[in-house]
Amino acid sequence: RAEAMARKRGGGGLCACHLTAIVGWVALSLGVGLVLVHFAVVGLPGGRKSLGEEPGALEPAAPPPGARKSSSAVQHATGGTAAAKAAALGARLRAASTKGSLEDDAKFYDGGAVPAGKPEGSSQSLKEWENSDENNAKFPGPRPGDTEQRSSAPEILPGAKPGHYHGLLGRNPDGTERIPPTPLPPGGMTNDDRRDAHRGFCFNSRVSDSLSLDREQADHRSAACKRKHEQFPKDLPTATVIIVFHNENFSILARSIHSVLNHGPPHLLREVVVVDDASVPVSDRFYEKHWKRLQEELTEHLMTLPKVLLVRLKERRGLMLARMEGIWRATSDVAVFLDSHIEATPGYLEALLARIKETDGKSVVVPSIDSIGNEDFSYRAGGGLGVLGFSWTLGQAPTGADNGPDGTSPARSPVMAGGLLASDRKWFLKLGGYDPEMRLYGGEEMEIGFRTWMCGGAIEYVPCSHVGHVFRTPAYWQGQVYRVPGEEISRNKLRTAKVWMDDFAKLVEYASSPLPPSLPIGDLEGRRELRKKLQCKDFNWYIRHVVPTMFAPKLSGDAKGGCLKNGARDACVDTLGLQGDGVELGGYPCHYQHGTQALVLDGDGLVRLPQTGY
User: Fold this and answer.
1) CA–CA gap between residue 533 and residue 427 (Å, rounded)
2) Which of 370, 569, 584, 589 has its CA at 20 to 30 Å from residue 321's CA atom?
3) Sign of CA dihedral 602, 606, 607, 609
4) HSE of 319 in the Cβ direction (CA atoms, 13 Å)?
């Protein structure tokens, strides 16, 4: 997702951790798979250039008014040791919190001293909506073995102020850090040290561990954005931040959660739902010592933080379905999805909520995704990911953003990076949530982008919201953080094409490798029926109104697609993985798998290459 755009900031190209998945896809393109009979008839629309993410006691904390009670099938996580430690620490924190003045802290709220955790309306009205026909992504209920535990820490701890809106987090009663940073070696790190620190993460985990979990972030907004902030309505909707992780580094995950609480005004940030998507130790990339920190230590720490709900999934769902587990448990107006290796900054939440309110909840919004150094963890504002287009391979393509004369105006975006977004919760569920048939990750950003635009909404980039993101690097360790077969990503993208792109789906199919027989594309009827129910527009409308400058080849109903073969050498013309205008083609053994060897004959008699955007 966002990692694939790192090259925009001079990051040297694709991240190897995700590149491996792509390499697997290319390997499929180069001959691993079944031979496909080529030369199919392509039926595309007359084709022209378009027109124009206190400590917990042994007993669960009572949910805020209006929140759904946990199902009896859901167990409260972790056993006596972690919970007992958290409970003991919680008693000390509660005692300490009574010494501070919450009334004094309230003056720091941007919108006034409104207590958090007070959902509008009754729980009955929320339940009625969720059971209504408007909700097209109903909660199926927890699966056996899934657990959840809600923190019972005070909603605001001592020391609350801007930059620490919920108080000083992760502290002992004497103010020292519960989990202090781990110093780096006195003589610095050797290359072997760095390789080990990058293994399984593709960033320097030891440097992350050497930093405070509660480190402060500067305000990266422009002066114009700060002025705009003063004009935001005082009655902004409430938000639930949802963070999904699988085999994540402990310190970077905890720092992500701290930053969300530190910079989220208490009257707006109702809760943080943290979903463990079945993390497991993996011998060659995610050591058991890392996994163990995500168990008792993580539970104990999160139970000392305000407003945290920790959900642990027994069976891995993949990013999309794990995020649904988060939004199903959310009780606020807006769901904010963030990755597990980010740092939120001042004003990140208000700017997103203000735009959602301004558009009556119909815009799915994304922040400026700034870069956090994968080696030194320095925050680099400016030049972040924002407006994204797409290619006919359903890859992301950064485009310019028109943010108005002062740089504060939201900008329309055809799709989004996928890792960081916010949406009105009911609108997100009405539009069907994430495709339940998609697996792991990849392709979901295209599906949400097309569906939102075609079904009455919009994707918008909000430049006054800044969230830093650690973009992974292959500099010291080349591998996947967790294994994602390339054909699974291809499957997700082909599902998107077949449901939402109408005749244009052929352009994606020729640019992609066909799925092996062992990997069916899955049932499409559910999403197609959703499209009919929502009375969504067709993809030709999307092309004309959302991406009017995107090129689509002129193909007639009897246009041909296939490969160009040299029979004497049994070799086919191949892009050799190169893209863009003017690349030099080569020969490679024929694999009959579309992709790098796909050619399409257009209506003007020109041979076009799907891999280079036709």
Assistant:
1) 14
2) 370
3) negative
4) 20
Among 334, 359, 363, 364, smallest CA distance to 349 is for 334
Which parts of 480-585 fold into alpha helices (H)?
A: 486-500, 505-511, 525-533, 539-545
Strands 458-470 and 363-372: parallel
Specify the length of the chain in residues.
614
What residue has token string 């996580």?
77
Q: How many CB atoms lie within 10 A of CB 426?
A: 18
Residue 504 CA, distance from chain mean position = 26
Report how far residue 4's alpha carbon sits from residue 13's, in angstroms, rounded to the nearest whole number.
Answer: 8
Residue 274 has phi, psi (to 5 degrees) of -110, 120
Structural contact between residues 293 and 375, judged by C-beta atoms closer than 8 angstroms: no
Backbone angles phi, psi at 210, to 5 degrees: -85, -5
CA angle 481, 258, 316 (to 5 degrees): 35
Q: Is 449 helix (H, G, I), strand (E, B) or coil?
A: helix
Structure-token match 């295209």, residue found: 446
Q: Which residue has the tokens 């992350």?
A: 208
* pLDDT tens per residue across span 23-56: 343 333 333 332 332 333 333 333 333 323 333 3
Helix, strand or coil for residue 105?
helix
In degrees, rounded to 5, the angle at the alpha carbon of residue 330 between the alpha carbons of residues 324 and 335 is: 75
Using an 8 Å Cβ cutoff, are 487 and 25 in contact? yes
Residue 253 exposure: Cα atoms within 13 Å on the Cβ side: 26
* 10 CB-contact burial (10 Å; exposed 0-12 / middle 13-18 / buried 19+): exposed
Which distant-in-sequence residues (6+ apart) come within 8 Å of 532 by Cβ? none
Give the whole-angstrom CA distance, residue 32 versus residue 35: 9
Q: Render pLDDT for 254-293 as a digit per residue (tens, 0 to 9).
A: 999 999 999 999 999 999 999 999 999 998 888 899 999 9
Residue with tokens 């463990």: 276
Read off the pTM.
0.80
Q: Identify the three-state secondary structure at position 92.
A: helix
